[in-house]
Amino acid sequence: MSDESERPRFDAIMSQGGDEIIDATFRGAQSGDVLAMYELSKPFVATGGLIARDLELFDTDVEDFYVVEIDEVVVACAGIRRFTDLAEIFNVAVDGRWQSLGIGRFLLTSMLIVLESEGFADAVVFTKTTRDWFARYGFLPMDPASLPAERLTMLDPERKSIPMVRPTVQASDSIDALASITELRVRFERSGVEAVWDNGCDSLLMFAEKNDIDTASLCRGGMCGTCSSALKQGTVSYDVRPDVDPGDGSILLCISRPAANVVLDL
Ligand code: FES
């Protein structure tokens, strides 16, 4: 059994507005996560998106799996199969309550960073029902003939899964890299402005200013609450934990970045 502390881990401080903070952690799966991963995968097996795996198989392969945990509850998981020249991300499952809220992107980005750190230039997925989802994150259909023979022998022709590939991601932090796998859109609703997030901006406050949106700010460090804005849709990540309550449904613009497409009341 590998030492858990040796496996990559990324932490994120997320918010969907208000004083409730979502502490999300990407980490290597442990034997205590096996049942949760099995249960998470079940709905996707039922719809044909994932191949059924029993509890014992999750247990056997646990060191090849990673999970995202929120408040000590496993809400997403994915596994890695390593071949000589490429790696496959498989059994990607996100709890329905957390879909479209940035958790799948956090999981996928983290997996791509893990694979890059292991020396893999490309990551492959096989998809049957989620082709559009993976395409959104830069995966392109690939010629199965270029897959390793070892993987080809595992293919079930009846299943008709589509292989897709994209480069892995070099980064030291998953949140910093979120915008590198797909564009994030920010809509300033009252101003009627929508723009693609610029990762060169430190915060949504800086991004709003860059787009000539009227904002107020004072400390620019999450301490005074002046930059509070209602988040009408989406999820943000905070660089640091806010020192003040942003108010119902609101976020502090000066210490936050989008973790999903966001709509702001500005
Ligand atoms: S400007 Fe003070 S909290 Fe953002």
Describe the protein in words.
With 266 residues, this protein is of the alpha+beta class. The protein folds into two domains: 4-179, 3-Layer(aba) Sandwich (Aminopeptidase), CATH 3.40.630.30; 183-264, Ubiquitin-like (UB roll) (Roll), CATH 3.10.20. Helix content is 22%, strand content 29%. It has helices at 34-46, 55-60, 103-117, 131-136, 149-152, 174-181, 204-210, and strands at residues 10-15, 22-28, 65-70, 73-82, 87-94, 122-127, 140-141, 162-167, 185-188, 193-196, 228-233, 236-238, 250-252, 256-258, 262-264. A ten-stranded mixed beta sheet has the order 7-8-6-5-4-3-2-1-12-14. The mean pLDDT is 93. It binds FE2/S2 (inorganic) cluster. FE2/S2 (inorganic) cluster binds next to loops.
Q: Could you provide a short overview of the structure?
A:
Helices cover 22% and strands 29% of the residues.
